[in-house]
Design brief:
Blueprint: H1 2-18, H2 34-43, H3 49-58, H4 62-66, E1 73-74, E2 79-82, E3 85-86, E4 92-93, E5 102-105, H5 108-120, H6 140-155, E6 158-160, E7 162-163, E8 166-167, E9 177-179, H7 185-196, H8 208-215, H9 220-227, H10 237-247
Antiparallel strand pairs: 1-2, 2-5, 3-4, 6-9, 7-8
Helix pairs in contact: 2-6, 3-5, 3-7, 7-8, 8-9
Length: about 250
C-alpha cells in the first residue's frame, strides 16, 4: 500500500513536471531545432562536452545524468542503464518511477566521446560519469548557470532581452541577448522530437511505445500528452475516398 502511494506521488510529480509548459511544445520555442543543436555541439568543449552530448543523444533528465555511474554504462554494447538519479540537493535516489529504470542505446560517436572521457573523468567513490572536480555529485545550479546558459550564448542560440516591450541595447547600440532556453529540459525535448521525427526529416521515426520507454515515462499517456502532436500524420485522403465509395456509391 505504501509503495503504491509513493508510486502515485512520483507519477503525479512527473506529470506536473512534464506539463509545466502551457499548450503544445513548439520547435524553436520550447524545443531546440536541428540548426541550434548543431551549433551547440560545435561549441561544446572541455569536460562538459561529453555531458552535453549525452544529454542530446540519450534524452536523460539532468538528475539522471548527474547520478549516472560508469558501472551502468556498457560501452561495448553501446547502451546505458538508468538505475538512479541525483536530486537538487545532491542526494542519490531511485528514478522517478519504475519505468525510469530503463536501457538507452548509445550512438557510435557518443560511445567514442565517452570512452575518451572515461580516462580523464575525475575519480570518486560513487564512480559517477559526470561528477564535479572532486568526483562528487555536481550541483544542478552549476550546470545551468556555468554551463548551459553560457554554452547557448557562445553558440548563438539566443534571443534579445526585452524591457517594456522594447529590445534592450548596450552602449554601442547592439541588442543585449540572453540564452534562448533557460531550462536544461529543452535537450530532453529535443531528444524526444528526434526519436519521433520521420527518417526523411532526420529523425528515428520510432513508435510511441518505444519513445515512452526511451524517455522513461511511467505511462504512454504522458508521452502522448506531451509529444503526441509531433508524431507524423500521413495523408490518408485517398484511402478515405475509397472507403467512402464502398459505403456510398
Amino acid at each position: 500500500m505504501v509503495r503504491e502511494l509513493r508510486a502515485n506521488r512520483r507519477r503525479g510529480k512527473e506529470r506536473r513536471a512534464e506539463r509545466r509548459q502551457r499548450g503544445r511544445l513548439k520547435v524553436g520555442v520550447d524545443i531546440p531545432d536541428a540548426a541550434e543543436i548543431k551549433a551547440i555541439i560545435d561549441v561544446a568543449d572541455g569536460r562538459w562536452r561529453p555531458f552535453i552530448l549525452a544529454a542530446i543523444f540519450t534524452g536523460l533528465r539532468i538528475s539522471e545524468l548527474r547520478g549516472l555511474r560508469w558501472k551502468d554504462v556498457d560501452l561495448k554494447k553501446r547502451e546505458l542503464h538508468v538505475n538512479q538519479r541525483a536530486d537538487r540537493y545532491q542526494h542519490i535516489d531511485a528514478p522517478k518511477s519504475e519505468a525510469g529504470h530503463r536501457t538507452v542505446p548509445l550512438t557510435p560517436k557518443l560511445v567514442s566521446v565517452l570512452t575518451e572521457w572515461k580516462l580523464a573523468c575525475p575519480k570518486g567513490e560513487a564512480g559517477l560519469v559526470f561528477p564535479d572536480g572532486k568526483g562528487k555529485v555536481e550541483w544542478h545550479t552549476n550546470i545551468i548557470n556555468r554551463v548551459w546558459i553560457p554554452l547557448q550564448i557562445a553558440a548563438g542560440v539566443t534571443e534579445p532581452v526585452m524591457r517594456n516591450g522594447r529590445i534592450v541595447r548596450d552602449e554601442n547600440g547592439k541588442p543585449v541577448v540572453k540564452a534562448k532556453y533557460t531550462g536544461f529540459h529543452a535537450l530532453r525535448h529535443f531528444y524526444a522530437s528526434w526519436c519521433i521525427n520521420r527518417e526523411a526529416d532526420g529523425g528515428l521515426e520510432l513508435p510511441p511505445k518505444v519513445v515512452q520507454e526511451r524517455l522513461g515515462h511511467s505511462s504512454i499517456t504522458i508521452t502522448l500528452d506531451v509529444y503526441g502532436h509531433l508524431f507524423p500524420r500521413g495523408d490518408d485522403s485517398a484511402k478515405l475516398a475509397q472507403a467512402e465509395a464502398r459505403l456510398w456509391s
